[in-house]
């Protein structure tokens, strides 16, 4: 914060502890005692770090990648996969969502960077086959000692991700890949990339591979940062592979197995993006709610004015609560049926359409809610006086990442067509 505009009492009122207080008041009737304790423990960790970095001014100057080791030491990078070296953590999609929401309110762009590392964690966790190098990578990513990214999207293959052009070639001790990926979140800062490529671009489904490429021992793995102003804290890059070597022990899917792994990851990825959106909305909502009760105009608290209190804040509170309850129910269903879903081919997973619908709805609402609540705060909403620009900035890209809005609706329309045929 270069210049303070607001009174000290207004700034102090918009504290992280009060944001968490409002969030907790909304969620506590929906959660078990174990869930409540889980959230409160993470909140206490974040509150301690908030004091250390100095609140909003500290977040404005923060290099989010410096906090990976801190988060990893507390098990806050991911809670959806088993840790090979720890047995003291709650694991499941529901704990993962609750972890994410709590961190989103703390700093949404930090949480988003964690999410990109999680996309590297998931396939390594499920397809390491006990290989020690991959288990070491998994431990490093979960502990925040390594930063990960995932290479799927290409400059000429955006929504049509399956028909990728990055070429793989077998060599005696593994695979060599050549080509470019883009919009790779974390890649300029990443230690490793879980990358997809194909032996034959004319037949991607049966020749797709997935492997782990390391930057430190691979001169052919380079990344250049792309400028995306709305998320200035996150390093998103163009990732270049020039004869980049993936040793045999780092191959997680070969000879078409990469295609199945790609689709296997779509459901948790899209649920994760939906969760990110809901957490981001809680950050924006709690901030705007506090501001509207401590700031007065025309002799009244802003919340008392119908155009703000009813037409904006109350309206989006209702919509946010609906999205929250829907996502919690989806997480509980996913955790309960995880073993059953494991036996179903990824392309036939019945939750594919549900995850796409959830991602499309939550990301659209995220953008709308943050924009409207930012305006409800007036000039303050667009300045660095609060974290609102961090929430608003993230909302601007949430409809694009993980498949655009139209891709999610395309999946939904195909599902409807299938259901009608089966009826």
CATH superfamily label of the largest domain: Butyryl-CoA Dehydrogenase, subunit A, domain 3
Give the spatial strand order of the biggest sheet.
1-4-5-8
* N-to-C order of helices and strands: HHHHHHHHEEEEHEEEEHHEEHHHHH
User: Separation of termini?
Assistant: 59 Å
Based on Cα principal axes, name the global outline: globular
Decide which structural class fits the backbone.
alpha+beta
Given the structure, what is the number of helices?
A: 16
Low-confidence stretches: none
Mean pLDDT: 90
Alpha carbon gyration radius: 22 Å
For the record, the count of structural domains works out to: 3
The helix fraction, in percent, is: 40-55%
The CATH topology of the largest domain comes to: Butyryl-CoA Dehydrogenase, subunit A, domain 3
Total number of strands: 10
What's the CATH first level of the largest domain? Mainly Alpha
| Main β sheet profile | 4 strands, mixed
CATH architecture of the largest domain: Up-down Bundle
Instruction: Give the strand content.
Output: 5-15%
């Amino acid at each position: 914060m270069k210049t303070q505009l607001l009174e000290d009492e207004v700034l102090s009122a918009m504290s992280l502890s009060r944001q968490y207080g409002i969030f907790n008041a909304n969620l506590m009737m929906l959660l078990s005692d174990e869930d409540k304790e889980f959230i409160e423990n993470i909140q206490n960790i974040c509150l301690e770090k908030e004091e250390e970095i100095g609140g909003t001014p500290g977040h404005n100057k923060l290099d989010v990648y410096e906090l990976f080791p801190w988060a990893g030491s507390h098990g806050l990078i991911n809670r959806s996969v088993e840790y090979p070296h720890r047995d003291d953590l709650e694991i499941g999609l529901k704990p993962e969502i609750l972890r994410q929401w709590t961190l989103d309110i703390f700093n949404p762009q930090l949480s988003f960077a964690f999410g990109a590392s999680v996309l590297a964690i998931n396939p390594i966790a499920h397809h390491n086959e006990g290989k020690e190098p991959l288990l070491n990578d998994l431990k490093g990513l979960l502990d925040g000692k390594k930063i990960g990214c995932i290479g799927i999207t290409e400059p000429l293959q955006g929504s049509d991700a399956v028909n990728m052009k990055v070429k793989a070639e077998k060599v005696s001790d593994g695979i060599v890949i050549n080509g470019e990926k883009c919009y790779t979140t974390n890649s300029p800062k990443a230690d490793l990339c879980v990358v997809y490529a194909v032996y034959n671009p004319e037949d991607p489904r049966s020749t797709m591979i997935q492997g782990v490429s390391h930057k430190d021992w691979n001169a052919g793995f380079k990344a250049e940062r792309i400028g995306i102003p709305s998320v200035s804290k996150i390093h998103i890059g163009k990732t270049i592979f020039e004869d980049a070597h993936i040793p045999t022990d780092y191959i997680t899917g070969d000879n078409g197995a990469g295609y199945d792994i790609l689709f296997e990851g779509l459901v948790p990825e899209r649920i994760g993006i939906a969760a990110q959106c809901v957490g981001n909305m809680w950050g924006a909502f709690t901030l705007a709610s506090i501001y509207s009760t401590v700031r007065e105009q025309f002799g009244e608290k802003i919340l008392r004015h119908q155009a703000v209190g009813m037409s904006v804040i109350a309206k989006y509170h209702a919509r946010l609560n609906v999205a929250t309850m829907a996502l919690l129910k989806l997480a509980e269903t996913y955790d309960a049926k995880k073993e059953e879903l494991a036996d179903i081919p990824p392309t036939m997973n019945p939750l594919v359409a549900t995850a796409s619908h959830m991602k499309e709805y939550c990301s659209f609402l995220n953008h709308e809610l943050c924009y409207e609540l930012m305006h409800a705060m007036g000039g303050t909403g667009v300045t660095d006086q609060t974290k609102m620009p961090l929430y608003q900035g993230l909302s601007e890209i949430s409809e694009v990442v993980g498949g655009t809005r139209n891709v999610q609706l395309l999946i939904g329309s195909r599902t409807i067509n299938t259901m009608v045929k089966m009826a």
